[in-house]
Design brief:
CATH class of the domain at 58-90 and 168-440: Alpha Beta
CATH topology of the domain at 58-90 and 168-440: Rossmann fold
Shape: globular
Bound molecules: guanosine-5'-triphosphate, magnesium ion
CATH architecture of the domain at 58-90 and 168-440: 3-Layer(aba) Sandwich
Order of helices and strands: HHHEHEEEEHHEEEHEEEHEEHEHEHEEHH
Strand content: 5-15%
Helix content: 25-40%
CATH superfamily of the domain at 58-90 and 168-440: P-loop containing nucleotide triphosphate hydrolases
Structural class: alpha/beta
Number of strands: 17
Number of helices: 13
Strand order of the largest sheet: 10-12-13-11-14-15-17
Amino acid sequence: MQAAQVERILSGHNACCRYEHTSTIARRLQLSRSKVISPLNAAMMVFAALPPRSGKSPMQNSKRSSPKDKGRPGEAKGKSEKALIQSSKPKRSSTTSSGGVEPAALPAPAVASPRLPRPVASIRHLTSSPEADTQLKALDTVAIGPAASATEASAGLGELICGTAPVDYVAPGDLASKTSGEDFATGELGQDDDSDVEEDGFLVADGDVSEIGCQDPCQDDVQANTGDMATEEDAFPEIQFNLPNPTNVKVKTAEYLQSCVKVPDCPAPRFPEFAVIGRSNVGKSSLINMLTGRRDLALVSKQPGKTKCINHFLINGSWYFVDLPGYGYAKVGAQGRQQFDAFTREYFKMRPNLAMVFLLVDASIPPQKVDLEYANWLTDNEVPFTLVFTKADKRRKGVPSSARDSHVTSFKRSLLRDLAFLPPSILTSSAKGLGRGELLNFIAGLRVAFERSGRLAAIRQGML
Ligand SMILES: Nc1nc2c(ncn2[C@@H]2O[C@H](COP(=O)(O)OP(=O)(O)OP(=O)(O)O)[C@@H](O)[C@H]2O)c(=O)[nH]1
Ligand SMILES: [Mg+2]
């Protein structure tokens, strides 16, 4: 497949998408930043692409699994999550000079990651100059007004990625009656075990956590504060996608498909795919249950480290939701952590139908170094991601509810030390159903944008 052919196919499917080399885009952003930070400039560059690789994607050789291969997550193809991980372990190990045994290197990915056009969701600063530093410092104090950030960004992105509404939007209010929280809460929600909460990247004991159940009256408080946060968010240079407007999208069917630990074993990449990642226990599996309206589609536990595989769920027979193992949980052990991390990162780099990654960040605790590092890694590897702040309902004893908003704000501020523009962000609570409509709308819009980008068509035709 020649680069020119791919380009033609893609632009044929979405004539309004622009494909540019990422560094060109970033350079331009840097330029525009030195004058006036103009989110419009950022918005005009939604789709960035490195020249498409020639050759076939490893996905084409992947074993296809049918939705009939059912079972529980971790029991796919008759294997437990543990067995799947064991079988993927490297066989060789070498003896160190000191006589100890060091773990063998993890198997390298079969081929380099396919460089496919993907939506830009975050932009890194390119240079580290005194001028850039001054601009960065100014970021903390210079507010970019709502008109400049939201409206301009929306205008640009709207033209670029979405023309009409997706077919499966439903009327506003369709799901409104279900947002009590109880419908979507898993059995264990609100009983989060916070015995291991990371502070500044390290695992520390934390007994000072107030448990808040679904009935807690702080829901009003959450909603009231959401408004406050929106005002503050507008002050950040945040990339916003202008997706079609309907407020809700129905999840009619949601089924568990399979679990695996190697990218080539994932289901055939025939649908747009959305994946959740974040620290262990941040609420990834709970979010999937909340969004799909199923109590136990994904396995939830107050014990961190529950999810150990790449778990695929098929939604409405037309898109995939993927639950992944969390990072940062010390008790998994160094080798286990390294393995989860290796296949998860490989998945992000190699999965061609990945439309968006949701990076989950716990809004009830201060910014964590590991989360900031992960956001940077996703940016560096051109993986489009959206920040999803979780556990918005949760409060610690003696800590005012406004602390949550300040955690969200300081996370964004910290990220802005590395990134010139923030990815989109959504505040959620799986216990309360908060953010459900917003996230489902966002996914629906992205699916349409993704289809129009021509990526799926190219994948389906075996060209990517
Ligand atoms: N209060 C509160 N607790 C939550 C929320 N979301 C998840 N939890 C709790 O957090 C704990 C961990 O949830 P999981 O969904 O299993 O987290 P995970 O990120 O999938 O964890 P791993 O699979 O171990 O990486 C459970 O006890 C959940 O009940 C939320 O919105 N509010
Ligand atoms: Mg999980």
